[in-house]
Design a protein that fits this description.
Low-confidence stretches: none
Number of strands: 13
Distance between the termini: 74 Å
Helix content: 10-25%
Strand order of the largest sheet: 3-6-7-8-9-10
CATH topology of the largest domain: tt1808, chain A
CATH architecture of the largest domain: Alpha-Beta Complex
Structural class: alpha+beta
Shape: elongated
Length: 242
Amino acid sequence: MLTTTTDYQIIWEKLPDDFVLDNEPVDNINQPPLASALTESLEVANRLPSNALVSTNYGICATVNGKVVIKAPDWAYIPLISVPREEVFRSYTPQLQGDFPLIVAEFLSDSDGGEYSSKPTYPPGKWFYYEKILKVPNYLIFEPSIGDLELYQLDANQEYQIQSADANNRYWIPQIELFIGVWQGSRENRNGNWLRWWDSQGNLLLWGFEAARQQSDRANQERDRAERLAAKLRAAGIEPED
């Protein structure tokens, strides 16, 4: 599948079987738990369709001007894949295997700032690739150590513009009708800043252990209410069973 622009030609084709992928480990110990936390709350809230694809450090590729380009965002949300999931192997190719990503996220570490690189020549920078090649509508850049979150969205000219947070310091992602923002707390023995989702009414999307705890608290409250009612009935000479 071919896309042509004024400056470059893009072919959406499967990654060659002999292409050597970068097997270096992630450069920040926070990246895996941050990505997992983003995905889990979508699953718990039933906001992750079965035909969607969420990737973590997984290559998204294109052939640009005859050269294979592959970038692996720390987290990405692809709303629809059009092939069996087992065929999305080693990498993902938009157009060929499904939709373009709606969201990509990069978690900053002690790197060289490549998340902001708009270098157009091969190999292109991440910013250039997400903006000009993949045209991802929402680009998140998160600095977990200080809790700084930036959201860039494509404007009418298909260029990234930084967005302003709302009064709650959250950002609206219209395509999935959720807010995203920074939350402080503990998970997986890590105490610090996390990215969290909120629905349009401002309700926090819970992680699994939070949902289980909430359900347990409700059950305990119902038991306590029933026990108090039973005690009042007995004090009035009425057996609850009657």
